[in-house]
Design goal:
By secondary structure, this protein is of the alpha/beta class. It has a domain of 230 residues: Glycosidases (TIM Barrel). The chain is 41% helix and 14% strand. The protein has an 8-stranded parallel β-barrel with strand order 1-2-3-4-5-6-7-8, surrounded by 4 helices. The longest helix is centred in the last third of the chain and has 22 residues. It is globular.
Length: 333
């Protein structure tokens, strides 16, 4: 069973995770931040990467019983996509730290050329041009370079071909990209390394995709949140719990019949207004109950899960470390 945590906001920036990095700028994403910082970008990002996550964090996670980290990286990881600042040195360090502390790594192509979804966590807010043949070919080249660089490393558990791609071009284009990416990883890494594909928020559309003897050690990545939709904002705590124990339970039971499923992102966070009128003790109990309900469903139906995310500047329910320290989550898994 994979019990994991995302290292979000480290090698792919998000303003809400580390707002201090963006303070005093007009930047909305990593691309615009690097442009605005200019010649200072390399030094500022190096300092952030040196201190936001260290080996001490890997040791702490291992003590908690976490066995895998999902490591979001951008297509600029190798340092050849100016004005982005590369981070391959820090990926190398992550592998060293993981291997010394008995952890595995799922490499996640979180930011793709042209942006696969138009959100800040892709590295670039705005238009989605990832679906052009040129940008998909560039993505596959990054997957190939990563596969060759880390093949044979004890810590390499899997490679996720792209994070949360938009569904705008439908399943066929994504499927073709996934099949090419699968072949690339298999050529370099054999079948010991998992190939992970995102469901693009349509988990039921993949039951007949990449089936058969050719496709081994594959996983379907499903992300489950209850924060962003209008209905999410209106539900009570009991309504959110009912979704977990009903809709999510049925969904994962069904999809996992054809695919090994991982919950690549989930959180104990809910819309803040849910807790209006709650005492501090009642809020603690509510967050703990919501997190526990999710874990029970995931542990029953999934091959693993990854909390989003390990740390945020402001703490709270988005921060795994805060959740453990506040006893909203167990201190050992």
């Amino acid at each position: 069973m994979i019990r994991g945590v995302n290292l979000g906001g480290w090698l792919v920036l998000e303003p809400w995770i580390t707002p201090a990095l963006f303070e005093g700028t007009k930047a909305k994403d990593e691309l615009s931040l690097c442009r605005e910082l200019g010649d200072q970008a390399e030094e500022i990002l190096r300092l952030h990467r040196d201190h936001f996550i260290t080996e001490a964090d890997f040791r702490w996670l291992a003590r908690c019983g976490i066995n895998t980290v999902r490591l979001p990286i951008g297509y600029w990881v190798f340092g050849d996509e100016a004005p982005y600042v590369g981070s391959i040195v820090h990926v190398d360090r992550a592998f060293e730290w993981a291997e010394r502390n008995g952890l595995k790594i799922l490499l996640d192509l979180h930011g793709a050329p042209g942006s696969q979804n138009g959100h800040d966590h892709s590295g670039m807010v705005g238009d989605i041009t990832w679906y052009t043949p040129e940008n998909q070919a560039k993505s596959l080249k990054v997957i190939e370079r990563l596969s060759k660089r880390y093949r044979g490393r004890d810590a390499l558990a899997g490679i996720e071909l792209v994070n949360e791609p938009s569904w705008r071009n439908g399943r066929r284009t994504l499927q073709e990209y996934y099949e090419k990416g699968y072949d690339i990883v298999r050529k370099s890494c054999g079948t010991d390394v998992a190939v992970v594909v995102s469901d693009a928020f349509f988990p039921r559309r993949w039951s007949r995709v990449m089936q058969g003897d050719k496709y081994q050690n594959k996983q379907l990545d499903i992300h489950l949140y209850q924060l962003f939709g209008k209905r999410d904002q209106r539900r009570s705590l009991s309504g959110h719990m009912a979704i977990v124990n009903g809709k999510w339970h049925r969904l994962l039971a069904r999809v996992s019949r054809r695919w090994p499923v991982i919950i690549g992102e989930w959180s104990a966070a809910l819309p803040p207004k849910i807790y209006d009128g709650y005492s501090a003790e009642a809020k603690d109990a509510a967050i703990r109950a919501y997190a526990s309900a999710q874990l029970a469903v995931f542990e029953r139906h999934a091959a693993g899960w990854f909390y989003w995310t390990y740390r945020t500047q402001d703490g709270g329910a988005w921060s795994f470390r805060t959740c453990v320290e506040n006893r909203w989550l167990p201190d050992h898994f």
